Every structure is written in C-alpha cells, then in structure tokens.
Amino acid sequence: VIDLNIPMGETPKWFEGAKLNFAENLLKYRDERVAFIVTDEDMKEETITFAQMFEETRLYAAAFRKFGLKKGDIVVCK
C-alpha cells in the first residue's frame, strides 16, 4: 500500500496509480440499510438508504442518457 522506505517527515502516497469507482462500490447494495447520515447546519439529521441512493442515481442516469451524455462528459449538479 505504501512505500516503507520513505522518511518519517515525508507524506507517503497511498495506493499510487490506483483508481477507485465510488459509484460502483456504493451502488452494489440496494437494500434499506443506511448508506449515509446527513446533518445540516441546524443539526437536523436525514438518513439515506442504499435503496434511495440507487433510485436517485438511476433517475439521474436515465436523464443523462436522454440528453445524450456519455462517459467522459462533464456534469455539474446543484
């Protein structure tokens, strides 16, 4: 994982060259377990399940396909 030959004063580079697909890892579950707990500025908590996250992602993906977006295109969501 890290280069143990790096001196203590230097910050090691973890998994150099590795790529991680967050979507692939987060969307492999589709059940009612809690995926995220979101807390706003007023300390109000909201839970989001894996099923909810999957459904939201499915809807966004369908909309992106409808508009002709493809891998490599840049999208900004607000």
Automatic annotation (TrEMBL):
Molecular function GO terms recorded: acetoacetate-CoA ligase activity
Chain ranges passing through the membrane: none
Q: Which Gene3D superfamilies match?
A: N-terminal domain of ligase-like
Protein name, please? Acetoacetyl-CoA synthetase
Q: Which organism is it from?
A: Nephila pilipes (Giant wood spider)
Please name the gene that encodes this protein. Answer: NCL1_41942
